[in-house]
Amino acid sequence: MIAMRQHVNPLSKHFNEVEKISPLNVIFSDPQLPLHIDIGSASGEFLFKLAFENDNWNYLGIEIREKLVNKAKERVRNEGVGNLSFAFGNAFNIFNHYDCRFLITSLSSISFNFPDPWFKKKHNKRRVIQPKFINLLSSSMKKESLIFIKTDIKELFDYMDFTILSDLNFEELNKRDLNYFQTFNPKKLRTNREKHAILNQLNIFEKIYIKI
Ligand SMILES: C[S@@+](CC[C@H](N)C(=O)[O-])C[C@H]1O[C@@H](n2cnc3c(N)ncnc32)[C@H](O)[C@@H]1O
After folding, report:
1. Is residue 163 part of a domain?
2. 93 pLDDT band (50/70/90 cuts)?
3. Could you tell me if residue 16 is inside a domain?
4. Residues 39-50, mean pLDDT to the nearest whole number
5. Residue 2 belongs to a domain
6. Which residues form the domain of 59?
7. How many domains does the structure of the chain reveal?
8. Domain CATH for 159
9. What own/partner pairs with CB < 8 Å and gap ≥ 24 does 4-11 have?
10. More confident site: 3 or 130
């Protein structure tokens, strides 16, 4: 067990420097597989399960808590998982870096699962999903690629929903129109935070958006 701060301030200067991410053919055994990126992947447990279950997808987790990322990377190496990778940093700074833009153009889907603790209005700027992040995704994501959001905080959900739908390149995707077997998570595996929310009978708010 490692002691760790639960929240870090994403605006701290410490996160201005971003990890350079190697090309897909270096980080994955088969770079041609569809790519799913999970923002705020924490210890990576959810992605390890997905990667073991679905060897027809590549998964990349981005997480701002460095120790968690280092442990997850070590596990990837030890267990020789070819379709999983992790990167440390503030997700916006990584995506905004010219050398990392290929990640946005390559992804088939991206998830924000219970993304952050910054639900108070005064902390708007620390939130992961904000207009500048959505603009970045909107300008480079492929047509028909998907955004998945999920949270147990209604105010944060409304803010994320409003921010995404304010961008005219994204539309809500009706879940009935989605074939889950073809998504990054065909068995609807749950993240740790989602399991915690269910155990505590919290409401879970979720939506899927498609790039048009
Ligand atoms: C509440 S936890 C949820 C973890 C996991 N997604 C789940 O559902 O169990 C949110 C995670 O997002 C990470 N995070 C917050 N802001 C971030 C940012 N700007 N870039 C990358 N990760 C971030 C936090 O460090 C934390 O691990």
Report:
1. yes
2. very high
3. no
4. 98
5. no
6. 26-211
7. 1
8. 3.40.50.150
9. 4/65, 4/67, 4/68, 5/65, 6/117, 7/117, 8/64, 8/65, 9/126, 10/64, 10/90, 10/92, 10/116, 10/126, 10/128, 11/125, 11/126
10. 130
Written as six digits, the tokens of 107 are 């992804």
42 pocket-lining for ligand 1 (C-beta < 6 Å): yes
- Ligand 1: which residue has its CA nearest to atom 19? 90
Q: Residues 6 or more apart from 163 whose CB is under 8 A from it?
A: 129, 130, 131, 134
φ, ψ of residue 147 to 5 degrees: the values are -115, 130
- Structure confidence by residue, pLDDT tens digits, 126-174: 789 999 999 999 999 999 999 999 999 999 999 999 999 999 999 999 9
Pick the more confident residue, 86 or 175.
86
The mean pLDDT value for 50-63 works out to 98
What is the pTM assigned to this prediction?
0.93
Taking the CA of residue 41 as reference, the ligand 1 atom at the shortest distance is 6
Q: Catalytic pick from 55, 116, 152, 167? A: 116
* DSSP 8-state class, residue 113: E
- Ramachandran region, residue 165 (left: φ > 0; alpha: ψ -120 to 50; beta: rest): alpha
Mark whether 167 is an active-site residue: no
Asked, for residue 110, whether it belongs to a domain, the answer is: yes
Structure tokens at 176: 């009935």
Closest residue by Cα to atom 11, ligand 1, is: 40
Whose alpha carbon is nearest atom 4 of ligand 1?
Answer: 42
State if residue 193 touches ligand 1 by the CB under 6 angstroms criterion.
Answer: yes
Model confidence at 48: pLDDT above 50 = yes
> What pLDDT is attached to residue 126?
78
